[in-house]
């Protein structure tokens, strides 16, 4: 019998935080279509994908037409799932060929089998979202070209855990917006995906020697933050119809400090030409964590280096138990009731911070 302890040992992980930064070039991401026909598999190929996934696409009667806002959510979900298919396909290929950094030794086959299932499950998620778009007379979202800033299994799993946390937060927002726009027939299906992604996240956390469940109430997010984060992994100009997704893309925010489970001063940077103001006293550093009211901290300018502005802000870990995912943004104003208000006022973000 294989224990969780031996799986953790295989991964050899003890990461305590993840800091978002601009992606760097990695090995070429998988070329679409994949060998199984995805994103446009035949009926026979879908059957094979379902076998690898351990389950099927939903086969109930078609839901009523989705609202215009609901279509935005379906487009974002499809964009994200295509990104995840590309990421996990590349990870699976690297594990299969055991390229340097991806040979796990004892337990390798167990991990390989798990990732193979994840690839197929994410393919079904994408097919389901694009199927919803087609059923409403909307064009499906097409895959981009991608670049992932990882070169070994340890970093790949840390990144997978972080973007899965963002997905878990964003699907909360999608469920809320489906309900608010009257698209209630989509809420149950999204809930099933939330659970499925949660199972994945627990696995990725175990592989990092972390407790499988991070928080009692997972950090919320909004669609715009996820939309921006996904584009950080796409090759500019390579997304054929991303313009159909009417969401906001924020300017990049770089988290320069490796944060851990303690209160400290954190350093960030941004491009001054994108700030829209020279009066940085009108801006605040905002942290979104769990289901709590966003935390607002004062910015202190460290210096300007060309177009790069470096600032510091307090990171109040101990005061608020800032475990799991924390989303950082620089926004105009100093008081925000919820994540939606932060997104409406945000200029730079999201900075993604992982602790515990």
UniProtKB/TrEMBL annotation:
Keyword tags: Signal
Signal peptide start and end residues: 1-21
Native source organism of the sequence: Mytilinidion resinicola
Domain of life of the source: Eukaryota
Protein name: Late sexual development protein
């Amino acid at each position: 019998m294989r224990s969780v302890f031996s799986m953790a040992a295989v991964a050899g992980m003890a990461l305590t935080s993840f800091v978002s930064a601009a992606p760097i070039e990695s090995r070429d991401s998988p070329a679409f279509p994949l060998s199984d026909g995805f994103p446009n598999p035949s009926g026979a190929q879908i059957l094979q994908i379902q076998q690898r996934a351990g389950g099927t696409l939903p086969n109930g009667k078609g839901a009523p037409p989705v609202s215009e806002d609901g279509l935005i959510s379906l487009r974002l979900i499809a964009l994200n799932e295509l990104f995840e298919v590309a990421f996990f396909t590349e990870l699976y290929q690297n594990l299969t060929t055991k390229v340097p950094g991806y040979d796990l030794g004892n337990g390798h086959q167990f991990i390989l089998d798990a990732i193979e299932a994840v690839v197929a499950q994410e393919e079904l998620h994408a097919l389901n979202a694009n199927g919803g778009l087609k059923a409403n007379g909307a064009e499906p979202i097409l895959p981009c070209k991608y670049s992932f800033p990882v070169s070994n299994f340890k970093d790949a799993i840390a990144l997978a855990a972080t973007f899965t946390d963002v997905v878990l937060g964003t699907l909360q927002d999608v469920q809320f917006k489906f309900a608010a726009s009257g698209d209630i027939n989509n809420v149950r299906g999204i809930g099933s995906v939330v659970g499925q992604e949660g199972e994945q996240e627990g696995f990725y956390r175990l592989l990092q020697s972390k407790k499988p469940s991070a928080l009692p109430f997972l950090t919320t997010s909004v669609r715009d933050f996820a939309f921006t984060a996904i584009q950080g992994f796409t090759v500019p100009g390579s997304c054929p119809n991303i313009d159909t997704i009417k969401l906001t893309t924020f300017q990049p925010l770089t988290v320069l400090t490796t944060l851990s489970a303690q209160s400290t001063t954190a350093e960030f940077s941004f491009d001054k030409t994108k700030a829209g103001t020279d009066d940085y006293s009108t801006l605040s550093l905002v942290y979104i964590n769990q289901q709590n009211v966003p935390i607002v901290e004062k910015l202190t300018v460290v210096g300007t280096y060309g177009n790069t502005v470096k600032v510091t802000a307090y990171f109040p870990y101990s005061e608020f138990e800032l475990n799991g995912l924390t989303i950082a943004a620089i926004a105009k104003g100093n008081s925000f009731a919820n994540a939606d208000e932060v997104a409406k006022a945000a200029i730079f973000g999201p900075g993604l911070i992982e602790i515990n």
